[in-house]
Amino acid sequence: xxxxxxxxxxxxxxxxxxxxxxxxxxxxxxxxxxxxxxxxxxxxxxxxxxxxxxxxxxxxxxxxxxxxxxxxxxxxxxxxxxxxxxxxxxxxxxxxxxxxxxxxxxxxxxxxxxxxxxxxxxxxxxxxxxxxxxxxxxxxxxxxxxxxxxxxxxxxxxxxxxxxxxxxxxxxxxxxxxxxxxxxxxxxxxxxxxxxxxxxxxxxxxxxxxxxxxxxxxxxxxxxxxxxxxxxxxxxxxxxxxxxxxxxxxxxxxxxxxxxxxxxxxxxxxxxxxxxxxxxxxxxxxxxxxx
Length: 291
Hints:
By secondary structure, the chain is an all-alpha fold. The chain has helices at 5-36, 43-61, 65-86, 96-118, 144-166, 168-178, 180-185, 190-212, 224-237, 242-262, 270-281, and strands spanning 134-136, 141-143. A two-stranded antiparallel ribbon has the order 1-2. The N and C termini lie far apart (43 Å).
């Protein structure tokens, strides 16, 4: 098949944009599972809530995009604290299945409430004026907002990796999940640390939701379209692996973009084909630790 180079390069870049969303969403999942051992099926709902809050902030209160980029993750993080304190803390010592079912039920409740309020149709949300227009790359015109999505996502992803893997706070977080009694002996309040970790993970999802609002139609169901793919990304990268989630998210976005050019019919399933092949070869995922 003779594919023009400009078409291939265009799909690679668009795949990188999608991969940026996969990376930041799977990062939040990896943080929560890696440090709390909870399969957070409500991650897509928190992603959607971030986008809905951005839309509501603009249309009801006149709060612009840049302010909501900070306020929405903060609000959803506070909501995450409530969820963790009231619900999740009861399932930490149980099988992972209980946490998954609990967060799945929470997802259905959140989506049902918002569908009753806003309906299932999409709500438009415009990109900020500072990021309007497009840049000429020679082989395509790439909207400036999509460039910003890639830059913002990668910046947050690698800052999170550095925080968890290279700082004393990250060392306390990792140690607290393995041996909480030992960490408490150093004066660290482990339950509060766990609570804030969950809040941070869902705040990442809300941040991705605000980034996605000008790209996708804001809808109560918008998280459903991504969460299954994002779970596949986490499984391929290795459950709980921070860097694995980032690199796998970006890589699968690019693979998906290339597939849309080479064999469009397979673009919706290529991620799951890759997941099956990886699990056959390495059940713990590409960057996961064999137990």
